[in-house]
Amino acid sequence: MAQKFDYIVVGAGSSGCIVATRLTEDPDVRVLLVEAGRTDRTNMFIAMPGGLPFVYQNKKIGWGIQSGPEPHLHGRTIDEKAGKVLGGGSSINAMIFNRGNPMDYDGWAEGGLKDWDFAHCLPYFRKMESFEDGPDAWRGGSGPLRISRARAQHKMYETFLRAGEQAGFEITPDHNGQRQEGLHIAQSFIHDGVRWSATKAYLRPAFERPNLKVLPKTVVNRVLVEDGAAVGIEVQGPDGPRRVRCEREVILAAGAMNTPKLLMLSGIGPGDELRRHGIDVVAEAREVGRNLQNHPGVDLQFGTRHEDSLTSQIGLVGRAKLGADWMLRRKGLGTTNFFEAGAFLRTRYDVDFPNMQWEFLPITRQLRGNKLVPVPGFQFWMDLSRPLSRGEVTLNSADPSAPPSVVFNTYAERQDLQDMIDGVRMTQEMVRQSAWQRYRPQLITPGPEITSDADLEAFVRRATGTSYHPSGTCRMGVDAEAVVDAEGRMNAVRDLRIVDASIMPKVITGNLNAPVMMMAEKLADRIRGRESLAPSDAGYYRRLSAGSAAAAG
Question: What is this structure's pTM?
Answer without folding.
Answer: 0.96
